[in-house]
Amino acid sequence: MNVLIVFAHPEHQSFTGTMLQEAVETLEEVGHSVQVSDLYRKGFNPVPGRHDFLTAHSDSLFNYANEQSHAHQNQSFAKDLRMEQDKLNWADLVIFQFPLWWFGLPAILKGWVDRVFANGYAYGGGRWFGNGAFTGKKGMLVITAGGPETAYQSDGIQGPIQDILAPLERGIFLSVGISVLPAFVAYGASYSSDSQKELVLDRLRDHLQTLESKPTIAPPNPTDYDETLRRKPQ
Ligand SMILES: Cc1cc2nc3c(=O)[nH]c(=O)nc-3n(C[C@H](O)[C@H](O)[C@H](O)COP(=O)(O)O)c2cc1C
Fold first, then answer.
1. Which residues contact 196 (CB under 8 A, 6 or more apart)?
2. C-alpha atoms less than 13 angstroms from C-alpha of 171 in its C-beta half-sphere
3. What are φ and ψ of residue 80, in 5° steps?
4. Residue having the nearest C-alpha atom to atom 2 of ligand 1
5. How many CB atoms lie within 10 A of CB 164?
6. CB 97 within 8 A of CB 5
7. Is the CB of 69 under 6 A from ligand 1?
8. How does pLDDT run across 25-74, given as a tens digit for each residue?
């Protein structure tokens, strides 16, 4: 598979950085081709604006989604976005790798999604979920979290990890047609000993070596939903 890792950690010598290295090596060892979009290293600008576009649909009112659609039709996305979209087009699997920050994506990665998954390109015109623009691709989250695993169980203080993963997996991957592979979470990353980190790296290697046999969650089919977008009775 062609694998794009979108990496969002400011320090390569962090554990998240070590996991990136491990991921690239493992994926290449088992025969995948890998590209990394290293957002901090390239100074990716996460802030949307008129700089996203080489031409303007409207010079007065700035409607971001309309400008995105216009740019898609006229192939006038700015170079930084075109480069990311080309990588996305190439990828069979998209991995978001990041430290959990405030129960979500670091802002630089959220901004990457806002700007790169553009209206017209990634969604729009009835293309979403099972009809999505990226149907056939897979997506996966690889996360480091400061809290221990027990904190993310149903009776843990942070609540179930799935409550955090689901909005990302459904709201980003599934909504543009990307099927979801099981996430990999490294808990307690801030406080782990070297031997605990080694175990996490072993687990990560196992997870990545068997990607192609892992079950995926497929995007829901829009025809199973009524005009109010509620599921039709079976
Ligand atoms: C801005 C910020 C927000 C954070 N929010 C969370 C959080 O919501 N839940 C959590 O478990 N850890 C949180 N952490 C801890 C990080 O997830 C943790 O430091 C990181 O995963 C450790 O990986 P590293 O050693 O590679 O940096 C946060 C850390 C920072 C800096």
1. 188
2. 11
3. -65, -35
4. 101
5. 20
6. yes
7. no
8. 999 999 999 999 999 999 999 999 999 999 999 999 999 999 999 999 99
